[in-house]
Write the structure tokens for this entry.
Amino acid sequence: MSITGKTLEPELNTPIAVASMTGPRREQREKRESEDSTERVNRLEVVVRYALYIVITLFLFVPFVMTVLSSFKTSAEVIAFPPTILPSVWHPENYLNVLTQISGFPRMVFNSFFVTLMVVALNLFFDSLVGYAFARLEFPFKNTLFAVMIATMVIPGFVFIVPRYILLLNAHIVDTYFAFAVLYFLQPAYILLMTQFFKSIPRDLEEAAIVDGLGWFGIFWKIILPLARPALLATGILTFAGMWNNFLDWIIYMQSPTMQNIQLGLVSFRGQYQNQWNLIMAGSVLAILPILIVYVAGQRYFVRGIATTGMK
């Protein structure tokens, strides 16, 4: 019996040892499989994300590239089918023809820059001032006025065309620069942007300034505005792009040839029987350049201003 007991003892202990050894191994194997599966999912997610980025980039960038290339073609080559990517013969003189064939082109450039910069300056001051009032000050019906302002953003702009024209006509400011100052010195979308950015700024600096004797406008001008540089640049870039590309308001409120902008000048290349597509493309490239330069110069602050708006 002792011999039998000795022979049975290791047999009885063997399954216990095997079970105790396979438990941690199984857990390690399952952990590795889970990590491998998670890594594969992450890799697939990165691939899909970058593929989507590439598709969106091509969708947005290809029309711009085709416009630039078409500006060096002849008018017939621009509308030829099947289309060609590169021009058979490069025509850089198209850009010179744009500058010489549009009557009063320097005046149009001046009008575009003057009105755009004027509206940008007015918006930077008044939108930030109103936004600061909504974010920090307490006054009667503040929430009601803010809600009404937000509600105006959902009303189509075409609804205001006739009332605006009648208002400007009665004020005798149609066909003047002052018309755009009255129409666009405040814009609800940018007031909302500035309000949300100001709410993300801690109140400690303002409370310290109040102790030092600064009033609300002094706090706004000397402390808050320097901190709101990203939001101000985002507002400025968006306002610049909107006013520079404005076509409908110019054709409605500016009636004399000397008060036209670049976009109206490009219409002169469209005829009753044919269009000068190569000059339209060259003029479009020239019209895009200011917006492109402004955005490239301030894109870091633009993205930061949009991304951090409303964060606390």
